[in-house]
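Side project, low priority. Logging it here so it doesn't get lost.
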Amino acid sequence: MRGALWLLVLFAIAAAAALFAGNNQGSVALFWPPYRIDLSLNLVLLLLVGAFLVVHTAMGAITALLDMPRQALRWRTQQKERAMHGALLDALSHLIAGRYIRARKSAQTLLDQEASLTASGQKPANAGQLRAIAHLLAAESAQALQDRAARERHLQKALDQATSARDAQETRDGALLRAARWSLEDRDPEAAMQWLQGLPQGAGRRTVALRTRLRASRQAGRPLEALETARLLAKHHAFSDIAARGILRGLAIDLLNGAYDVAQLQRAWLALEPPERVMPEVAIHAAQRLTSLRGDPRLARDWLLPVWEKQAELGDSLRVKLVCALEEGLDSIDGGWLARIEAAQKANPRDATLQYLAGMACMKRQLWGKAQQLLTQAALGLQDAALHRNAWRALAELAEQREDAPAAAQAWKRAAGE
């Protein structure tokens, strides 16, 4: 469409020129005493247009000739910038490929090219950021090569360049995150925490920063801080639901393991959030930990109550652990808990684990006949070796109490695994 319009315009110009020149009878007289020169107006116009074109072309040629040194300087600068960016790409490629010595050499080449440009007065755009990235690449390569002195030297230079350069905050944040990761690789979590503290508040809540803080907290033996960080990561959906639950469960157990008296254990329990307290593994471990510290068995049963209410949904191993945790406090069991155990056993009369727990509870309450009946049934169906052994041991004690020596001997043999 544009070509057709240009063609129409040219035809119009040609038609107008033909109409003007064809009927133009004007002339131009030039007096140069003693001469007189007569020229047609059309020729004069053509000469003027030609002279303008010649002068314009000559001026353009002179300008291009005078601009050649500047163009040559710009071309050399472009070549150096291309070489500089090529060195940056080479450093990244070698680093990804695991060729760390070549990556460090390419990063040094980048620094040399940038220094050459700056010395010639042609400082590239974002020079400070380029230098910071080059030093970071060199530091990453030095870390892989276990050259800590070179790593620290390049890291410090990268931080200096990122601090002084404009619009380089992201580069500085990246340098701090890399420094924290390197400290973790060196098994120095305290240094990693210090690097992370240098991040701005917004950068410190990014997923990568929280993951690094989680690793540092776990290495430093700070389960509460690690647990709080893991909660933030789970809130940000940094893990899958199953992974988040497993991480929170493990950290909660680590927090409980760090308590060495009942008061510390209670504070650790209160530091857990409600969803964490109802995790079967956490509640069972807390109850067992409280029992080992000679705490109040009633408090342990209170912690286990939410888990007990869902005991039908638990797997076999967790149900065994729950029964073992409750068994440790049966000496002080009250009527309410006895009723719960009996109701659960009657609701599932073929469950050997519940039969065992109910039998042991009856034995503690000196209900000998019922205890013997339940334990006998449980001993025939228990799959867990420890519970099976304990059931036969309890039956042996009941037989000795009623002075049935043959039955006691047989039960002791069963308890010994014979």
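Brief comment: The radius of gyration is 44 Å.
Revisit when time allows.
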